[in-house]
Amino acid sequence: MPKLWLIGILFLFLTVRLSGQEQVLYQPKSLKFSNISVDSALLIIENQTDLHFTFRSDLLHTTNRVNAYFKNVPLCIILDSLFSNPNLNYQIIENQLVVYEQKIPADNALVLVDSLSSSQIISFGGEIRDAKTGDALPFAAISVQNSILGTISNEDGLFYIQIRNSHTNDSILISYLGYRTLRIPLHFIPKYKIYSLESTSIPLQEVIIRGLHPENLIRMAIDYKKRNYPNHSFVQRAFYREAIKRDKKYMLYSEGILDVLKRPYRPSLFKEQVKLVKQRSFKAIERKDSIKIKLYGGIQTSLDLDVVKNSFSFIDLELMNDYVYSMRDMVINDDKLAYKIEFKPKNSKQAFVYEGYIYLDVKSLAFVELEFQYTKASLQKMRNAFIVRQSPRLLIIPQNAHYTVTYKESEGIYYMHHIQGELTLKVKLKRKFLSSKYSASFEMVATELNGSAPRRFTADQTIRANTIFSDLSPRYDVNFWGLENFLVPEEDLMKAFERLSLER
Q1: Of 166, 178, 227, 286, which one's alpha carbon is 20 to 30 angstroms from that of 433?
Q2: pLDDT tens string 23-67
């Protein structure tokens, strides 16, 4: 057998406090192996942890030789390295560390709705508005009650959704943070309707909160991540779009359907994968445009913005002391109470510090929504953090970088639902007075879930997460999506599609 080289792995992961012995899986370990069998490496781990491994013999190539150096690496990452199997998971039962393989379903992780006939699909749309003001409610969630299947409204409050007939006995939920959820039996849903949601909130002074400081609530929510979020791999189908605007003119707009293979919400050696289902782009970059900026972003940024999985500083046990937390309100989220906690950095002039709001479900203490942005002072220190390449003749000043991340619950587990980000830049030629405003935006909304562990996507199925969509279409046509769910374009986008010149 060839040697298994694991040299120089020096990850520094932060400890996640968990109840009971499960904590051991997340605690950092420092281990050094030199030309020993993997089986012998496991014996060393057993001696350090007072645990005994239980697993099927065919899950481990025990004759492989290993040279490895792990410094402050969580035990589950070390096990990922030794077993080298992305479908394995770990659980501690009494003094046994059980290694088991997730069930692998059929090759098609998700049923392709394009393979269904129109008679098997129920489709409808509408507008979602505030019951009192009539204002549009952007990014409201529209979902099937007993499944992770749905979409969101666009910035104008419009939505369109297609649902399989198998859900006809179910109900549709229309929800928005701070509003009462509408629950409507699917067989009562018309083809098109304006839905009015009633705002509701509970003043904080009317709620008795004894001994619950916001910092303690955040720490408890971090403790409960393991029970509130998936501990297994799964696939989400998602609609993704990104755009770049100069002043009010669209220069680039791309959108597509993706299958995203998500890893467990624990430290993992294996990366998430993205499979492209369909895509297209519209470009209107004129030759006379002398300013060309390539911006960081794309699908990879959306994956990185899974805040709960990637432990951003404001919900990181080791970095929370850099922030001040304040209880601001209690709101309704999916007909459940949620704490609204504001956070600000103690030193807003540091680079890479945020301010914003955290919403915690009162009962489960799950993170259900996080809204945050870089501080103004932080942005000034990060002028080059968002730009890959720029002309020396340009002066580029970041104006704002704002993000929103939401999670939806299904059978007691919270899954990624909607990610949105927007970056605005002021760009001008040096020694010139006039400037232009550039904005880059992206969002990803999960439209369907396969809760089972999928097969790992093959190399020819995957795309790099930083890939920019480039497929072209002669005109914008909603029929392009077939029976897939997508985000309805806003009115200004529809106008832009009419005038965009398409690269060929």
Answers
A1: 286
A2: 788 888 898 888 888 888 899 999 988 889 988 888 876 667 888
Q: Say yes or no: 361 and 489 in one domain.
A: yes
The model's pLDDT over 177-218, given as tens digits with 9 standing for 90+, comes to 889 999 999 888 889 999 999 988 666 555 555 456 899 999
- Region at 130 (left for phi over 0; alpha for psi -120 to 50; beta for the rest): beta
SS3 call for 66 = strand
Rounded distance between C-alpha atoms, residue 487 and residue 160, angstroms: 7
The verdict on 412 and 463 lying in the same domain is: yes
The two structure tokens encoding residue 36: 């020993």
**Which H, E and C letters describe 197-244, residue by residue?**
ECECEECHHHCCCCCCCHHHHHHHHHHCHHHHCCCCCEEEEEEEEEEE
492 shares a domain with 379: yes
- Token readout for 32 is 């050094």
Q: Which domain holds residue 155?
A: 113-202
**Overall number of domains in the chain:** 3
The CATH number assigned to the domain holding 159 equals 2.60.40.1120
